[in-house]
Amino acid sequence: MEEPLTREQLLDMYYYMKLTRMVEERLQRLYRQGKIVGGLYRSLGQEGESVASAYALEEGDFLAVMIRNLGALFVRGIRPWEIFTQYMGKGTSPTRGKDSIVHFGSVERGIIPPISHLGDLIPVMAGIALASKMQRKRSVALTYIGDGGTSTGVFHEGLNFAAVLKLPLIVIAEDNGYAYSTPKHRQMAIENIADRAIGYGIFGETVDGNDVIAVYHATRRAIERAREGLGPTLLEVKTFRMRGHAEHDDAWYVPREVLEYWQKRDPILRLEIYLKEHGMADETDFEAITHRIEQEIEADLQYAEQSPMPDPRIALEGVYAETPSVSEAPLPSEHAVKSRS
Amino acid sequence: MPVLTYLEAIRQGLWEEMERDERVFLLGEDIGVYGGAFKVTEGFLERFGEERVIDTPISEAAIVGAAIGAALVGLRPVAEMQFIDFISIAFDQLTNFAAKCRYRWGAGVPIVVRGPCGGGVHGGPFHSQNVEAYFFHTPGLKIVEPATPYDAKGLIKAAIRDEDPVLYFEHKYLYRRIRGEVPEDDYIVPIGKADIKRPGRDVTILTYGWMVHKSLEAAEIVAQEDIEVEVVDLRTLLPLDDETILSSVAKTGRAVIVHEDTRTGGIAGEIAMRLNERIFEYLEAPVVRVTAPDTPIPFSPPLEEFFLPQVEEIVQAVRWVANY
Ligand SMILES: Cc1ncc(C[n+]2csc(CCOP(=O)(O)OP(=O)(O)O)c2C)c(N)n1
Ligand SMILES: [Mg+2]
Question: pLDDT higher for B78 or A323?
Fold first, then answer.
């Protein structure tokens, strides 16, 4: 039987979900004030599945997020200042301004960043799982894909590859109703993404993505199977994208009733109700956590705002391990310097 | 004459072709109900219906592959890449399937694959790329990139009517920033023809896309120093318009090639080689290029600005060849 989550663990997950929501709310304000660069992709309503799935991982495991998995990054130790500086394009950001949003990572911290091209992470994470197996490690690889992202060729290739080689890979498929403006039924002719698992000969399961406890346990099961050498799992979480694709999109194409339905099933609200009903926490506990987060966010945001923009010349650095020598064009010095990259 | 934005001109060209020829249809992600990520196809679904404006799954390889198939049997598909960066997923369909059909078995593949390219809007490494060089190396494909609303409309029409696969790159920075007169009537801008956007006798700038506008600004600046620049807008990158390119440079004797794409393996290298092979005796100065450096395109504004070719760099390059 599954070991039930302790009060401490549940409050921990509550903290990460709330942190995700509050950081994003802050980003939304910054977006409206014109203080962030580029678009803002929210995970409102999906904080639960990101947090719970990442929370099921252990030290040494690998995680790769997509744009709506900010919560998973926080669970793995990423702090709000890293997100704020990324969104502001600051020189102190993890990518030093070279890339934005959650497009950053660190092999040491077990975090592999996405590229925008949907699905490309799946074969890469299969490779990480393959290496883990070859190196006789216990580590598993976990990544996410949206309902829309499952329409890519690499989704299929990656899962099939992992299935054949029985790799310790967990793919969380997020059915959040839409891919940009496209509803799920224009993306696939099936109801449940997890049904595809049969076609790959792997484990598949569909869970309520706004029930953090269910997501946590389902992910644990997948991880245990992976560690036992039983191969990959396609774990589908049913959830909903409560805002537009990004903040520029008011999602007029989403019926109001659908939003209302999911509003009542908000993952944070549901965990609060659960904790109260089980006598594990009350409003004062939630307020204390919220208060703590407010302070953390203020401090981190201040750091981000005070950080300088990057030195332009950073643009030329880091393409290779060693900077190759390029012959200088016989041109005015300014121009020649820039072409030497 | 009506004044349209670059984006409206593309839309008008597409619209007129769909009105004119019922074989023309559109397919892509979020192009129907939503009208496209940049709203190029807004209103098309209402006018032309679901059969001719198809919202597809996120499957670029299938979008292009299906376009190829439909084209082989008589339709005229126009496929949209939501951002041109995602064309990489359809690379095989384009370079191996579409590009080689006619050569191998005589079958034409009259498809258009279009989408927003280029930087300047802080889109980061995957929403800002210029991808022409990947395809420039593939015989069998054609590549166009308009710089003005007039050319945008005329080239989309020519691309749709062309018997071979055409990649139509539209610069997202220009979408709503550039306006110009666009005739209401049916006209095409022929594929394979460059256009002299500013005549001049001293130095030729060969360029395309957003850089046409930056080059025109640079030409304005050096005109005050009595350097008369001729700005040639290539418009079609494959096949290059040798006649216009060579005759302009033969006249001025000095050439600066400007592109937003990165340097190594870029189109500038090929043009410089043609100048060298064909009109070496006319050259009064080395041919130079102003391009982005050989790095991915970075996100943060100061980095992106540094990465992108700037007017001042073009001015310096022009002065350098003029005074050589
Ligand atoms: C291969 C590819 N094509 C197109 C896009 C543009 N795009 C970015 S996100 C998105 C929708 C993704 O939907 P989904 O996978 O369901 O994830 P969600 O946004 O719902 O979390 C699209 C079409 C892309 N990033 N990659
Ligand atoms: Mg989705």
Answer: B78
The domains of chain A, with CATH numbers, are 7-315 (3.40.50.970)
Q: How many CB pairs under 8 A join A and B?
A: 144
My answer on whether B160 and B217 are in the same domain is no
Any atom of ligand 1 within 6 Å of the Cβ of A49: no
Shared-domain flag, residues B176 and B149: yes
pTM given for the model = 0.96
Closest in B33, B290, B299 to A89, CB measured: B299
Q: Which of B127, B171, B213, B259 is catalytic?
A: B127
Do B150 and B297 belong to one domain? no
One domain, residues B150 and B203? no
With an 8 Å Cβ cutoff, is B279 touching chain A?
Answer: no
Confidence category of residue A2, pLDDT binned at 50, 70, 90? confident
Q: Are residues B201 and B177 in the same domain?
A: no
Domain range for B209 is: 195-322
In this complex, do B125 and A95 lie within 8 Å of one another by their Cβ atoms?
no
Distances (CA, A) of A211 to A10, A270, A273: 12, 7, 11
Total number of domains constituting chain B: 2
pLDDT tens for B26-78 read 999 999 999 999 999 999 999 999 999 999 999 999 999 999 999 999 999 99
Whose atoms come closest to the Cα of B123: which ligand?
Answer: 1
* Claim to verify: residue B85 and residue B144 sit in the same structural domain: yes
Report CA(A187)–ligand 2 centroid distance (Å): 10
Buried/exposed B86-107: b ≥16 CB within 10 Å, e otherwise: bbbbbbebbbebbbbbeeeeee
Write out residues 19-38 of B within 8 Å (CB-CB) of A.
29-30, 33-34, 37
SS3 letters across A84-133: HHHHHCCCCCCCCCCCCCCCCCECCCCEECCCCCCCCHHHHHHHHHHHHH
What average pLDDT is seen over chain A?
95
Distance (Å) from the C-alpha of residue B101 to the closest C-alpha of chain A? 23
What are B172-196's pLDDT values in tens digits? 999 999 999 999 999 999 999 999 9
Cβ burial of A171 (10 Å; 0-12, 13-18, 19+) is buried
Considering the domain architecture, whether residues B221 and B298 belong to the same structural domain is answered as yes
